[in-house]
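We close this part of the discussion by returning to an individual protein. The sequence in question and its structure tokens are set out directly beneath this paragraph:
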Amino acid sequence: QVQVAESGGGLVQTGGSLRLSCTASGLPFASYRMGWFRQAPGKEREGVSCISESGRGTVYADSVKGRFTISRDNAKNTLYLQMNSLKPEDTAMYYCAAGLKGQWGLLREAAVTYWGQGTQVTVSS
């Protein structure tokens, strides 16, 4: 049974940092392209970042470039998202996405094989 679970969300002030984690089981983690998406209230879910199977390739949405860092530990079946210099507009539910398919670098919901339940990130002004 596949399980994808996020943790690490919370309430932080503008300029603060958070690190999200995503653990996955029941799937070949080291063979899966992984990513993070987010959905703010009243908005569509959007891609934040993705990482290649080895971890050597990464892609970021323009809105988070230079502030967020995606990484993975294949030995621990864990994906991370380090979020620095957080802004109120980063407030959203953050979702771990496992098994992104298709053209490299495209952050599309339809390309995701498995989703986590999400973890809430709230940035206060």
